[in-house]
Design a protein that fits this description.
This protein is of the alpha/beta class and 713 residues long. The protein is built from 20 helices and 27 strands. Helix 3 runs antiparallel to helix 4 and helix 12 packs parallel to helix 13.
Length: 713
């Protein structure tokens, strides 16, 4: 087989969806790790459940659409949609079994040992507890419920996506013995679990569906309850919009959002002890195949564990809360603009606080010398101070242009609301380019100064979201470099007015130039290796599944280029395979924070180049999104960013290393010093603040409070 055929052979690639499921297994392994505080393990199990929900609503739904449309083109690994669904079905059923054995056999006993009992069944309640629960039902729950019966005059109800319900077979008292179907929705407006007064210091909680099931007879007074079981469905939430035909994108997306509630049912979760007659009705009415049904031994929808994490009194079973630290370069009395003029400023979240980014926009909104603010928004928080500052800037007479990406999945409604609010405030709002999502993270502030107009730019790898900035690891740079400022202006002119520049100074944009630049840099490393010059690639990203990029990496590996990849999630590349990728290693880091930054290093024959970006190496990022890759040129910042990569490559506590057979294993710790990159970055951020304070006046040293001390207060 010719070399080129080897690099592109489907056998040398991993299916994207199966790779994602491997990632969810890695998250689940954290829930199973007994060295992690117990309540953190609850969180990881909850995350696997919410991850799986989204996977079904989008990825599985998309494959089902392909099957319905008789689309049979194989994927990167040579699998047709039907084959992918079959393999996904096997793997997800195994994953769900492991989720629930982790919950029942590991977490529940451990919680009980720590004095917290989750009641598995309402029949376990003693008389006193039963009375408490029944009173709670009558007082808090009963008024909210809407029982629904199905008969000749009442059709089968619309069951909303992701809602928890209780289905029952009921029989009329003194009737002819015929069974009818009935159901009640477990209200999402009430707490999912209720704490019951306990004895001897033991705390007990019971789930809301158990309380309703215990009292379900009171909802159907003229009937006998034959059997009742909780169930939950997942619907197709993936929608496509013909943007060329849509007269108003905002209105069209609002219409599509409503359709999510009645999309095709693609998954049913139900109690494994369900009555077969009840299951038959659900299967018929919801048009389900056997493979779409998940029989659950435990409570449905484990995402409730994230709320349980908030229970008071269990701090000793949680990781101490980390407080993002101040940015040393900004620890002075100068304003943000003066500090940026001193030199580029590097931000590493959540180790460093996100406040400077918010401060940047807020100061610009009030500064009389600021003429214009331009920004892209992909996902923002529910009560965003950045959006409030942009609205205030428009109110203050500044030229404000905001690109709000309406097509950010599951944030569409939130973004529509922000877009309307910004328009009312007088901002010029752009809804993105036809056929593309704008995923780039860029802010431009234009300011009049003594020596003329100066442009200040923030570029980042993550969203302008002050909430997720405490949970996601991301990098950013604030600069007033004239070449980058010029490029930033060109970006916004392109987004708002179809004005494509003849050339770029520093920034590399998708979908027009980024793919070509990446391939060129990978192939250049190959040429350096063949010439006996230093050749090395280190790349950190969320996902790697672009066939052309992977083929180029295989080719570079075979030429002798050392390639070290840090890929959190999907990885369609096979690592360590002789004659293909023996020079490639892949590691995934799953820790307290969600790894989100994208950093790319190229040795370049001894003249290293370093970049950060908003884009992963995926077809959607390189071909269907507006993305920005930007160089790191300041030598001091280069050192900091390279240090991030180096520490992550040394991580042996939270890293999972990809094996040639496609499995992931944690590194062998025997005889090695333990390295947890996220813990180390927390400590280094605190140390950097201490060092900066030490340079300043002695009285200022007392203003630093270490994170541990802050938590203990």
């Amino acid at each position: 087989m010719a070399a080129e055929e080897i690099y592109t052979n489907p056998k040398n690639y991993v299916n994207r969806e199966l790779s994602w499921l491997e990632f969810n297994y890695r998250v689940l392994s954290e829930a199973r790790d007994k060295s992690i505080p117990l309540f953190e393990r609850l969180k990881f199990l909850s995350i696997t459940a919410s991850n799986l929900d989204e996977f079904f609503m989008v990825r599985v739904a998309s494959l089902k659409d392909m099957v319905h449309a008789k689309y049979s083109k194989p994927d990167i690994a040579g699998l047709k949609p039907e084959q992918q669904l079959e393999k996904i079905g096997e793997k997800t059923h195994d994953l769900v079994s492991l989720q629930y054995s982790t919950y029942s056999r590991s977490l529940l006993p451990a919680l009980k040992q720590q004095g917290l009992v989750i009641m598995m069944n309402h029949e376990e309640l003693n008389d006193q507890e039963g009375e408490y629960v029944d009173r709670y039902f009558q007082r808090e729950v009963y008024p909210v419920l809407t029982p629904m019966a199905v008969d000749s005059s009442r059709p089968f109800p619309l069951i909303r996506n992701k809602t928890l319900n209780i289905a029952a077979l009921v029989q009329k008292k003194d009737g002819d013995g015929e069974l009818d179907f009935a159901m009640v929705q477990v209200p999402g407006v009430l707490p999912r679990f209720v704490e019951i007064p306990g004895e001897n210091g033991e705390r007990k909680v019971i789930l809301l569906e158990e309380i309703i099931e215990r009292n379900i007879q009171s909802l159907f007074l003229n009937y006998d309850i034959v059997t009742a079981h909780p169930f939950r469905i997942m619907r197709n939430a993936d929608f496509n919009i013909d943007e060329e035909e849509a007269e108003d994108l905002l209105v069209e997306i609002q219409k599509q959002l409503k359709k999510r509630q009645w999309g095709e049912v693609i998954r049913l979760e139900i109690d494994e002890k369900v009555d077969k007659r009840l299951l038959k009705i659900l299967k018929r009415e919801l048009k389900l195949e056997n493979n779409d049904i998940f029989f659950i031994n435990g409570p449905l929808d484990l995402t409730f564990l994230m709320k349980m994490y908030g229970l008071k009194g269990f701090d000793s079973l949680k990781e101490p809360k980390y407080e993002p630290q101040r940015v040393p370069a900004l620890m002075n009395d100068d304003d943000i603009f003066t500090n940026i003029r001193k030199g580029d400023i590097f931000l590493h979240h959540p180790y460093m606080t996100f406040d400077p980014v918010v401060d940047f926009i807020q100061k610009a909104s009030k500064d009389p010398d600021v003429l214009a603010i331009k920004q892209t928004l992909y996902r923002v928080s529910g009560n965003s101070p950045i959006v409030a500052a942009l609205a205030a800037a428009a109110d203050n007479g500044k030229q404000v242009s905001v690109l709000v990406e309406l097509k950010a999945r599951f944030d569409e409604e939130n973004n529509i609301n922000w877009a309307k609010m910004l328009e009312k405030a007088g901002c010029h709002v752009i809804y993105g380019l036809v056929g593309l999502k704008t995923h780039s993270k860029i802010t431009l502030v234009v300011r009049r100064e003594e020596d003329g107009i100066r442009r200040y730019v923030h570029l980042g790898t993550g969203n302008y979201n002050d909430s997720t900035a405490k949970l996601y690891t991301d990098c950013g740079i604030m600069t007033c470099n004239p070449a980058i400022g010029e490029d930033a202006t060109a970006v916004f002119n392109m987004l708002s007015g179809y004005s494509e520049p003849l050339g770029w100074n520093k920034l590399v944009l998708a979908p027009l130039w980024l793919r070509g630049r990446l391939l060129k840099m990978i192939r250049r490393e190959k040429e350096y290796a063949e010439a006996g010059k230093p050749a090395h690639i280190i790349a950190k990203m969320n996902s790697l599944c672009d066939k052309e990029v992977i083929a180029a990496l295989y080719e570079a590996s075979c030429a002798g280029v050392k390639i070290e990849l840090i890929v959190r999630g999907i990885c369609c590349l096979k690592a360590g395979v002789p004659g293909l990728s023996e020079n490639i290693s892949v590691r995934s880091i799953v820790g307290t924070f969600l790894e989100h930054s994208r950093i790319f290093y190229f040795e370049s024959g001894g003249r290293p180049e370093l970049y950060m970006a908003s884009a992963d190496w995926m077809p959607r990022n390189l071909d269907k999104r507006v993305e920005i890759m930007f160089p790191v040129e300041d030598e001091k910042i280069k050192e900091q960013v390279l240090h991030i990569l180096q520490v992550q490559l040394e991580d042996n506590r939270k890293a999972h290393v990809l094996q040639p057979d496609g499995s992931y294993e944690k590194p062998d710790l025997r005889g090695k010093m333990k390295v947890c990159s996220q813990e180390q970055f927390c400590q280094e951020a605190e140390a950097a603040v201490r060092a900066e304070l030490a340079k300043q006046e002695p009285e200022n040293r007392r203003t630093f409070i270490p994170a541990e001390a802050q938590n203990s207060k």
